[in-house]
Specification:
This protein has 316 residues and is α/β, with parallel strands linked by helices. The protein is 41% helix and 20% strand. The protein contains eleven helices and ten strands. A five-stranded mixed β-sheet has the order 3-2-1-4-5. A five-stranded mixed β-sheet has the order 8-7-6-9-10, with helices on both faces. Strand 4, helix 2 and strand 5 form a beta-alpha-beta unit. Helix 4 packs across helix 5, helix 4 packs antiparallel against helix 9 and helix 8 crosses helix 9. The radius of gyration is 21 Å and the shape is globular.
């Protein structure tokens, strides 16, 4: 049997496992449930179930009856790896095992394993990078209470604040007020504010309303447009801070943008403009997803240089 390598992306919504051979050919991919909360009630059982489900599906796709001993495996987890390392010994064996956070595998996938920087605008926001010496740096990712500027939750929060100011008579008019009420069924902005404090509106659900900011900005709402401009500025500052920590001033650096926030063309173009004012910066969409990034890190751990082939379209 050829040497096999494994990459796992363990996230808040699902777990993805990818198996590759020593030539870099992807043999199979499988998905399972979320595996980020080990310490919570029933967390251990849920973690093992998600891992076994994703690994089993990947083995079946690769034509394997079960997961054999591996040459190398890399697993990146939302929330970090420390509470999961011991449990991994129950589901796999490998000569080289790397457990890390989701930022590293997202970076590796986005840049195809090369040095660079990623900036993520999802529910929150976060920048991470690695240079050719293997040194890493980060910026942002402080959570909704203290940061996450440029993420979806932040943009929705700014939209609601604008709607509240308008409703109370001390802010400029904005279509965000009507859009938020229509989308949520709230009686007024104050009612919506109180709804957002309940369990009926978890942060990802609130963040999903950031699309209303983009819709309003596209139709010419200046308040919405300013929210997007300021969000792009914050994201560019995060990415620029990481670049400055890791790379020389004129060094060519790919900066990959990831996440739903960049579906806004207004935000994306402003971000690109700000980043590419810096000599050497090249903005780009991600080359691969984080599960492929984990697989690349498995090859890296074993000292194997490959060019990936047969990568599933969903991971590109």
């Amino acid at each position: 049997m050829s040497e096999l390598f494994l990459g796992v992306d363990g996230g808040q919504s699902s777990t993805t496992a990818i198996i590759g051979d020593e030539t870099g050919r992807v043999l199979g991919m499988g998905r399972g449930g979320p595996c980020n909360h080990v310490q919570a009630s029933e967390g251990r059982a849920k973690f093992l179930s998600a891992m076994n489900e994703s690994l089993g599906a990947a083995c079946r796709a690769a034509g394997l009856e079960k997961l054999p001993p591996l040459q190398a495996a890399c697993m990146g987890f939302s929330g970090g790896p420390k509470d999961k390392e011991a449990l991994l010994k129950e589901v796999l064996t490998a000569q080289h095992i790397v457990t890390t956070h989701d930022g590293l595998i997202a970076l590796s996938g986005a840049t195809g394993g090369e040095p660079g920087v990623i900036i993520i605008s999802g529910t929150g926001s976060f920048a991470f990078g690695r240079n050719d010496e293997g040194r890493t740096a980060r910026a942002g990712g402080w959570g909704f209470a203290f940061g996450d500027e440029g993420g979806g939750f932040h943009m929705t929060r700014q939209a609601l604040r604008a709607a509240l100011r308008m409703e109370e008579g001390w802010g400029p008019p904005t279509t965000l007020h009507a859009r938020l009420l229509e989308a949520t069924g709230a009686a007024d902005a104050n009612d919506l504010l109180h709804q957002f404090y309940t369990t009926e509106w978890p942060r990802p659900k609130i963040a999903s309303l950031s699309r209303l900011v983009d819709e309003a900005a596209v139709e010419g709402d200046p308040v919405a447009g300013e929210i997007l401009v300021q969000s792009a500025q914050s994201l560019a500052q995060y990415a620029g801070a990481v670049r400055g920590q890791l790379f020389a001033e004129n060094e060519t650096v790919p900066v990959a943008y990831i996440g739903g926030g960049f579906r806004s063309e207004i935000l994306l173009e402003r971000f690109r403009m700000l980043m590419e004012l810096q000599d050497g910066v090249r903005t780009q969409p991600p080359q691969y997803g984080p599960a492929v990034g984990a697989l690349l890190e498995a090859y890296r751990a074993a000292g194997v240089a490959v060019r990936l082939t047969n990568v599933p379209e969903t991971e590109k």
